[in-house]
Design a protein that fits this description.
The complex is a heterodimer.
Chain A (H helix, E strand, L loop, with lengths): L2 E7 L2 E7 L6 H8 L18 E4 L2 E4 L12 E3 L12 H8 L9 H14 L6 H7 L10 H20 L1
Parallel strand pairs in A: 1-5
Antiparallel strand pairs in A: 1-2, 3-4, 3-5
Chain B lengths: L4 E3 L19 H5 L15 E7 L5 E5 L2 H6 L3 E5 L29 E2 L5 E7 L2 H10 L3 E4 L10 E3 L12 E3 L2 H6 L3 E9 L11 E7 L2 E5 L5 H12 L6 E4 L15 H13 L3 E4 L15 E9 L5 E13 L21 E10 L12 H19 L3 H7 L17 H12 L11 E2 L5 E12 L5 E8 L4 E4 L9 H13 L6 E5 L15 H25 L14 E4 L2 E4 L6 E3 H8 L3 E8 L3 H6 L3 E12 L6 E11 L6 H20 L31 E5 L23 H13 L10 H5 L7
Parallel strand pairs in B: 2-14, 12-13, 16-17, 21-22, 28-29
Antiparallel strand pairs in B: 1-22, 2-6, 3-5, 3-7, 4-6, 8-17, 9-17, 10-15, 11-12, 11-14, 15-16, 18-19, 19-27, 20-21, 20-26, 23-24, 24-25, 27-28
The chains are: A alpha+beta, B alpha+beta.
The structure holds FE2/S2 (inorganic) cluster (FES) (2 copies).
One FE2/S2 (inorganic) cluster (FES) sits at the interface of chains A and B.
């Protein structure tokens, strides 16, 4: 059984023929579209390493069947920067040393972008911690991550005001 | 394709040499998704391999439905013991000091749950996964033995990596007899699994008898030889590429069966093969921290000085190999006592072989020791910090040797000040917050040895005034690519921006092992020495050249800095590296270095990093829920190359301490022998909401003996001290002493002492 899906990935239209309906969105990105920035840490929705934005909302792409995302607008870590210009969240992760091995980082960053979009956490570190708790980090980079999210959010707010 | 990591100038420049908080040089790659981890490789024509694992813990595989698997569209091969081609090394052979027996389909025996029993190769990941499922194994089942009670006790000939199992100093019986106060206590720690966020991964490609493997590895050149050995080819025929590791924590320094099978599949199929372990297979063939039972008996005189320190540990290992968590050795080098006795026992269980996991021995041992010390302070009626100061050791308690440097007193003082330890009530259950939660403060001492591993490096000064430095190091998140480049820059008298740093592949000089917290010291010393060697050669050229302002200065009469050689006696006489090379007609000059410690210093001094950790916890009196609300660590670890990265490493270690104290535990089903929580939902590690504001203070320490750089290591020490600090804080909050880690709410609320 083959299925045809059309998605927008990082602003580029992708027409995909799936030879297998079991393909997840994560494996479509990684194994078929050569977008390997999104990581697989568990394949079970338990770690957040595979977080991408679908129509602006963060999801675990390992729990999403590619076939059911026809017409979706997907943003991955590769699509966040504008050319050489990093997204404020990416820049803040560097500035605050919000990672060590970097494996959870694409998921943390996409999740942070999603969290900031949701506008729920405000500038309360505890709510940021809560909102980021679906993204595990085994290296223990939590302190820098939370600082980075708060800092990026502040910068984005200031930008909006200016 | 993951080539050797080659990093250009950093994007954010905050400084240019050792001691500066240089921003991670690979940061840009990591935040854009451009850093290439092993599983990100996709050579043309690649096949996918998936391992099938046993669902029983002990017995024999009696059948596999190979036909069904092969009939699935896309499946191209199934490898089982029946058709597995021979290997050049016996998987049951232990190769080298650091060798482990592996499971590579050598027979139909099952020795633990989730042991590899077959490998399925297919055109797609989906087909390989389904093929592995279709194998539907049947077994001849033998009863599983997974607990201390069910396992087989034995006396291990060695613990850890080749350390003696027992140690004694002074008369322990006399020490106990002389005591006024006594503590006799037993702590238990569970099996823990490394669970790096990046699962073990292998992309293998053969070209004749040459093998290229993309795989995360903490000991690149050493592993290359081992991989070559299994396939009967010379080490030079293997190119191992590991530019980025998604965490290792010890598990990626050792060999495992799935890797060998994936490489074998690539050779059989004559096509590249990718194999990535699913998360549940990270709970089996790739090592773990063995469980321990630790019995401590402490004796103290009337003033609270230890008269006897006895620490006996029993640890689990597999039925077929030995790695005994050297937990009791944590009592050798920290507290002064006229009599110290430590012993280890082993228990064989039907579980995969344990191995080194972040602070192997030290983590489990420190957890028990620091809790026992807290109990001892209470027995003497002394504040826990004061008790530790009374038992402060100016020389190494085990050997009597002087320390190379020990700023632990400063750690205690600075940590206590930052935390606000003064005024802590001695008795438990004295403090509450506004919500009525019980508040407690606890502390622990941190300590970790400073090993160095053989390492080599090469530095090439180029005629354009830049330099290439090379060593096959490993960066699993500690920041090696940045810290090592900083060290290399200093050795060459160049700004770090002028350094091209190549690392992470096996065709470079051996950078040693990223383990034991010794990588920066080992590879760093090699890089430093390579730089010094290159500079010496350049100085030879300059001082022998009549046209150089340095002519006649003699090799020792010049100093390298900012890309120039200066005459020591006369600063107005200097010349740039580029000019020296240009006139000499050499395109470059090369230096080589090794990283080793002065053998005399190594013999005469005891070398350790030290620290003190202070924790505050809040405990819900009805629900037993524990929150760590503050965590302060103060660490003295010699010279800090990059305070920004060192702090991140220390935080990481302290968070592992939180995890050890409150979260991590592999739960075995005693009947089936299987781990019941082999995923990241059931095997808990802290999430963001579990981690409070933290502080890691870097205490100044000059260590003139540890190595030329004065560098110790910060990768593991944070785990030690922290576990005890949290456990002791929970006791201080609740009055309940939980002696089985992790400290979960059930253990608190079921304790008769808990209800208010
Ligand atoms: S890989 Fe999707 S949540 Fe872990
Ligand atoms: S940075 Fe390594 S897992 Fe988060």
């Amino acid at each position: 059984m083959t299925l045809s899906v059309t998605l927008s990935v990082n602003g580029v239209r992708r027409d995909v023929t799936l030879e297998d309906p079991r393909v997840t969105l994560l494996d479509l990105l990684r194994e078929r579209l050569d977008l390997v920035g999104t990581k697989k840490g568990c394949d079970r929705g338990q770690c957040g390493a595979c977080t991408v934005l679908v129509d602006g909302r963060r999801i675990n792409s390992c729990l999403a069947l590619a076939a059911s995302y026809d017409g979706a607008d997907i943003v991955t870590i590769e699509g966040l920067a504008k050319g050489d210009l990093l997204d404020p969240v990416q820049a803040a992760f560097i500035a605050h040393d919000g990672f060590q091995c970097g494996f959870c980082t694409p998921g943390q960053i996409m999740s942070a972008v999603g969290l900031i979009n949701e506008g729920e956490a405000g500038d309360d570190p505890d709510r940021v911690r809560e909102g980021m708790s679906g993204n595990l980090c085994r290296c223990g980079a939590h302190a820098g991550i939370v600082e980075a999210v708060l800092d990026a959010q502040k910068q984005l707010q200031q930008r909006r005001v200016a | 394709m993951s080539d050797a990591i080659t990093l250009p100038a950093p994007h954010v420049r905050l400084g240019s040499s050792s001691g500066q908080p240089v921003t991670r040089r690979d940061g840009h790659l990591k935040v854009t998704g451009a850093a290439t981890y092993a599983a990100d490789n996709h050579p043309a024509g690649m096949l996918y391999a998936v391992i099938a694992v046993s669902t029983i813990a002990r017995g024999r595989v009696t059948s596999l439905d190979v036909e069904a698997a092969k009939a699935h569209p896309g499946v191209v091969e199934v490898i089982t013991p029946a058709n597995r081609p021979p290997l050049s090394l016996d998987p049951d052979e232990k190769v080298g000091l650091f060798g482990f027996r592996i499971d590579a389909l050598q027979n139909d025996r099952v020795r633990y749950a989730r042991q590899p029993i077959a490998l399925v190769v297919a055109e797609t990941l989906e087909a390989a996964t389904e093929g592995a499922r279709l194998l539907s194994p049947t077994y001849e089942v033998e009863p599983a033995r997974v607990t201390f009670e069910d396992g087989e006790a034995y006396d291990p000939p060695a613990v850890g990596v080749g350390a003696p199992p027992n140690f004694a100093k002074g008369d322990i019986a006399a020490g106990h007899a002389a005591a006024t106060h006594r503590v006799d206590t037993t702590y238990e720690t569970p099996a823990q699994y490394h669970n790096a966020m990046e699962p073990h991964a292998m992309v293998a490609e053969w070209n004749g008898d040459h093998l290229t493997i993309d795989t995360p590895n903490q000991a690149i050149v050493m592993s290359r030889a081992l991989f070559a050995g299994y396939f009967g080819i010379p080490p030079e025929n293997v190119l191992l590429r590991s530019p980025f590791l998604g965490g290792g924590f010890g598990s990626k320094a050792i060999m495992n069966g799935p890797y060998i099978l994936a490489i074998l599949a690539a050779r059989m199929m004559q096509r590249p093969v990718k194999m990535v372990l699913p998360r549940d297979q990270m709970f089996g063939p790739v090592g773990h921290r063995g469980a321990t039972q630790q019995h401590l008996r402490l004796g103290m005189d009337a003033e609270g000085h230890l008269t006897a320190l006895e620490h006996n540990a029993v640890a689990t290992t597999s039925t077929f190999d030995d790695f005994i968590e050297p937990a009791a050795n944590a009592s050798h080098n920290l507290y002064a006592s006229p009599a110290i006795s430590t012993r280890h026992g082993g228990v064989r269980v039907d579980i995969g072989t344990p191995g080194p996991m972040r602070a192997p021995g030290e983590a489990s041992g420190s957890a028990a020791l620091e809790c026992a010390i807290d109990e001892a302070a209470l027995a003497c009626g002394i504040d826990p910090l004061e008790f530790r100061l009374r038992n402060y050791s100016e020389t190494d308690p085990a050997s009597g040797k002087p320390f190379s440097a020990k700023a632990l007193r400063e750690c205690y003082a600075e940590g206590a000040k930052a935390f606000g330890w003064a005024g802590r009530p001695l008795s438990p259950r004295q403090m509450k917050d506004v919500q009525g939660r019980l508040v407690g403060w606890g502390m622990g001492s941190a300590m970790f040895p400073c090993p160095m591993f053989p390492a080599t490096a090469r530095a090439t000064l180029r005629s354009d005034g830049t330099a290439l430095v090379e060593t096959a190091g490993a960066d699993m998140g500690q920041g090696a690519w940045t810290a090592l480049a900083q060290i290399a820059a200093d050795g060459l008298g160049l700004d770090v921006e002028r350094i091209e740093f190549r690392s992470g592949t096996s065709d470079l000089p051996d950078g040693g092992v990223a383990g034991g917290s010794g990588h920066t010291a080992s590879a760093g010393t090699a890089l430093h020495n390579a730089g010094t060697d290159a500079i010496a050669r350049l100085a030879e050229i300059a001082t022998a050249d009549r046209k150089s302002p340095l002519f006649g200065a003699g090799n020792a009469g010049v100093e390298a800095r900012d890309g120039r050689l200066y005459h020591r006696g006369d600063e107005t006489r200097s010349e740039s590296y580029a000019d020296i090379l240009a006139r000499s007609g050499n395109a470059s000059v090369e230096g080589n270095g090794t990283g080793a410690r002065d053998p005399k210093d190594a013999e005469e001094r005891a070398m350790f990093s030290h620290g003190a950790v202070f924790a505050e916890v809040k405990v819900d009196p009805d629900l037993g829920q524990v929150m760590v609300t503050r965590l302060v660590g103060a660490f003295a670890a010699g010279r800090i190359i990059n305070p920004k990265l060192a702090r991140s490493q220390l935080y990481g270690g302290m968070i592992w301490g939180v995890s050890f104290a409150l979260h991590e535990e592999a739960v075995h089903d005693r009947r089936s022998g299987r781990i019941m929580n082999a995923d990241l939902a059931g095997y808990h590690i802290p999430v963001h909401a579990d981690i409070p504001d933290m502080q890691a203070l870097l205490i100044h320490e000059d260590d003139p003996y540890v190595n030329v750089l004065g560098v110790k290591g910060v990768g593991e020490i944070g785990v030690t001290g922290t576990v005890g600090a949290i456990a002791n804080a929970i006791w201080h909050a609740t009055g309940v002493r939980v002696r089985r880690f992790p400290i979960t709410l059930d253990k608190l609320i079921l304790d008769p002492g808990m209800p208010a």
